[in-house]
Design a protein that fits this description.
This protein is mainly α. Helices cover about 55% and strands about 0% of the residues. The longest helix is centred in the first third of the chain and has 20 residues, at about 10-30.
């Protein structure tokens, strides 16, 4: 029996958007462990929700694939402020767990 839930368009969109958020975080130097601890996880949840509902999926994908890499997220990103804050904390000497996999740009 096939599990029809995996063919739902919204299900696929959620995974596409989450993948873009993970790639963006890797490109701008955000440690996921640091991001997940901000505001006891509430900021991570809000950022993930922002990404899932973002209308800039194609622009984001193009930026990640073709644009010159910058150390900060692009202005069109609804999570740019959150990523900038987390990247600053990540580079400020916060220990990076060995099990965290960094996605390459």
């Amino acid at each position: 029996m096939n599990d029809f839930r995996y063919s739902w368009p919204m299900f696929n969109q959620i995974f596409r958007q989450a993948e873009l958020m993970d790639r963006m975080m890797g490109c701008v130097g955000v440690n996921p462990a640091v991001a997940a601890r901000v505001d006891e996880g509430a900021a991570w949840y809000e950022a993930r929700t922002n990404c899932i509902s973002c209308c800039h999926e194609h622009v984001c994908r193009n930026w990640l694939e073709y644009s010159e890499r910058l150390p900060m997220p692009p202005d069109f990103c609804p999570n740019a402020e959150f990523f900038r804050s987390c990247a600053g904390q990540s580079s400020a000497g916060v220990a990076r767990p060995q099990s965290v996999v960094q996605l390459e740009c």
